[in-house]
Specification:
This protein has 98 residues and is of the alpha+beta class. The chain has one domain. It has four helices and five strands, in the order ββαβαββαα. The strands form two sheets. Strands 3-4-5 form a three-stranded mixed beta sheet. α1 packs parallel to α2 and α2 packs across α4. The longest helix is centred in the N-terminal third of the chain and has 14 residues.
Length: 98
Amino acid sequence: MTKNGKVYYVEGKLSTGNNSLDHNLNKGGKQSERILIDLTKIKDTNYITEQLINGFQENASLREVILLKGSRLILISEKDVLNKNFKVKFKKIWEQRK
């Protein structure tokens, strides 16, 4: 997939449970510096932010993650995750309807 001139690794997997987001971040982060993850079933923003922080820490080559929430694409960069207010900002973005 290409978005704004950047190439993203796309694989047809859904994150539907607690271990699946962690697994997809680790697997995708080893294969590409940009990944897309469908979070249709996961609602817990604390869990999502913790996994994103861990995913970026454990995969030095990972630069961006696009989260698919229904029809919305939410772009998360390494810079976003390093921000001290990341969890609060992410929760606001996540709870927006459009």
